[in-house]
Each structure stands twice: as structure tokens, then as C-alpha cells.
Amino acid sequence: VILSSDCDLAGLTDSKNLSEKKRDMLALAIKEQAVAWCVASASVGEIAQLNILHANMLAMTRKVKGLAIEPQLIRIDG
User: CA–CA separation, 8 vs 5, rounded Å?
Assistant: First the structure.
């Protein structure tokens, strides 16, 4: 997700600390306010071949490359 620097999403915090309802509401707000967003994954085969850490890094690389614009800063939660 790429958000503008002036984006203010009240209640945005670590997703593990949010109720399902609040998480769903924030997901919609994030998609509405996002400058760009992308979803990517690694396959079961890639995880088996690379291990979970490297497959996760592969998926993150795909996410960044899948964005419509290049981000200035990348923050990873996890």
C-alpha cells in the first residue's frame, strides 16, 4: 500500500491488535485512500523450494514491483 504523507487513518495500528470488524473497516478505508496497492503471494511450491523466509521476501518483491508507482519508503510489518 502506498499512502500519501498526509493520510490520517484513525485507529490504524498492528492488525493483531484490532478486532475483525475494525480490521475490515480499516481495510476499506486504506483501499479508498491509497495512492496505490498490490497483493502478491508465493506458491506452496516456492515455499517448499525456497523456505518460508525467502518465499516471503519473493512475495514482497512482487508486491513492490506490482505497484503502479515506485514507493519512496517501504515499511514492513512482520
Answer: 8
